[in-house]
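Here is one such protein, fold included:

. . .
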Amino acid sequence: MNNLSGRGLVAGLPAWDRCAVMGVVNVTPDSFSDGGRWFDTTVAVKHGLALVAEGADLVDVGGESTRPGATRVDEAEELRRVIPVVRGLASEGVVVSVDTMRASVAEQSLAAGAALVNDVSGGLADPAMIPVVAAAGAPFVVMHWRGFLDGSNVKGVYEDVVTEVVDELHARVEAVLAGGIAPDRIVVDPGLGFSKEAEHDLVLLAHLDRLRALGHPLLVAASRKRFLGRVLAGPAGAPPPARERDAATAAVSALAAHSGAWAVRVHEVRATADAVRVARAVEGARTTGSAPGAEGERRARETGHTPGAECGRAAHDAGYAPGAEGERGALGTGHALGTDGEHGAEGDR
């Protein structure tokens, strides 16, 4: 894996020096998160541009909901929804990802200016997908997928979720490589919420290092998902609506960035854009050792004392620290300073 801050580089895409932010534009009437809000082409393009203005590095355009129980849209309708939005955003210089499981939609999106194909099935839903992406030389997201989320076909049963997801992703990556997609154009995604319960998602987030060990840049797509609702609700509460999970999403984005994710996929960009930049600043301070005030601390270490140490030594030699006389007086009278005048303290007792 080509490295930049340990996150990896994806050939054919810009090189960001921190975790990238992928904003989401759902051109669907039935998305679990924001179905119908951006269904009109003009509105969808404006929304994508607004996400970039808020800090998105690339925009993921999808025309088919993948929520559990969603009815698949037909090919012609998906093309009608997606292609004009991809073309509109690409013409404005936006780095566009297309979220599709259909080879025909991927092919026409790439021709319209998309730079990346994000297939939640990792090429399993449409056998023509891998040859199309390989022929175009496009980057490709391989997500962990166990089939369409309809009826009882969720298959969210694991003995060891991290090991099984890593192994299944590895097998899928090998198939993608065999299909002709170059290794430096592959991104992996653990598929949070797909055939997984809340506890599975949390365990995967706690072990992103295992997923990064696959040797490809890592995309984390946790935005507004059900497991965050479960966390926020607690054991007895009702999960908040999807659009009330953005602060929790930003928290996951910061954690993912800290763990070396290449990108995070989110619906609300501004908070996550701030979160990943703070994570990068902390990472830089840890790497260089030059956090604010670090120079003074370094000089203090070299001279054998810290700022204020002279006062501390003088106080020690004199047998008291600043305020110690008052404390001794308080001890002599049997009470601590301020106790008599503490608001209502006597009455409270």
Remarks:
- The CA atoms of residues 90 and 113 lie 5 Å apart.
- Confidence is low (pLDDT under 50) at residues 32-36, 291-349.
- Residues 269-288 form the longest helix (20 residues).
- The two ends are 65 Å apart (CA to CA).
